[in-house]
Amino acid sequence: MPDIFDVQDLEQKKIFLILATPGMIRERNIEIIKEISAQGYHTVVITTNFPYSILAKLYAQSGIPGESVTFIDAVTRNSIGNAQNIPGVVRYINNPTNLTDMGIAVTEVLHEHSEKKICIMYDSVSTMLIYLSSANISKFIHFVTNKLRLMDVSGIFLAVEKGLDPMLMTQLTTFVDKVIDTA
């Protein structure tokens, strides 16, 4: 697959909505991280789709250096109860509905890595719909996109194509700079 991003778009701190087919969402996640890492970015992955431990293994198998990614995991504690944060590697959120803790974690991790070229990626907006209403997701993503712009950070929202209701899709499209359909 050709590059998903134009290097200039990342350098200009643009915010993207990337759409993938349901069967390709995991592969797109890996391709995105691989591409961003190759361009010298540190990626903060907020995952509501796969646990940190699974993504870390997939990234390692794909040759992505572990030190180029930090995780905010909203899945593991919800599934198994307790998991200890690993400073600089993973920060756990109790569950995907706790948007306040997620927002705080994003802010703290961005500050921890402020000396690096950073890109933040949400995997996935579609999965958040299991836990939250479209209205709450829209408000949260609006908050996050504004925070990213104010902090001068690139952002990516990964979603399943046709997995978002039309109103949420319309709102997300207005929050981002570019929609990339990889389906």
Q: Can you walk through the features of this model?
A:
The chain is an alpha/beta fold and 183 residues long. The protein has a single domain, classed as P-loop containing nucleotide triphosphate hydrolases (Rossmann fold, 3-Layer(aba) Sandwich), CATH 3.40.50.300. It is 45% helix and 20% strand. The protein has eight helices and seven strands. It is globular, with a radius of gyration of 15 Å. The mean pLDDT is 91.
Search tags:
single chain; 183 residues; alpha/beta; Rossmann fold; 7-stranded parallel β-sheet; 45% helix; globular
Q: Compute the CA-based radius of gyration.
A: 15 Å
CATH topology: Rossmann fold
Which segments are poorly predicted (pLDDT under 50) over 5 or more consecutive residues?
none
Largest sheet: 7 strands, parallel
Kindly name the structural category. alpha/beta
Helix content: 40-55%
Instruction: Compute the number of helices.
Output: 8
**N-to-C order of helices and strands:** HEHEHEHEHEHHEHE
CATH class annotation: Alpha Beta
Number of strand segments: 7
Tell me briefly what this model is.
This protein has 183 residues and is an alpha/beta fold. Helices cover 45% and strands 20% of the residues. The protein has one domain (7-181): P-loop containing nucleotide triphosphate hydrolases (Rossmann fold, 3-Layer(aba) Sandwich).
List the helices and strands and how they pair.
Blueprint: H1 7-11, E1 15-20, H2 25-38, E2 42-47, H3 52-61, E3 69-73, H4 76-80, E4 90-92, H5 99-112, E5 118-123, H6 125-131, H7 134-151, E6 154-160, H8 166-175, E7 178-181
Parallel strand pairs: 1-6, 1-7, 2-3, 2-5, 3-4, 5-6
Helix pairs in contact: 7-8
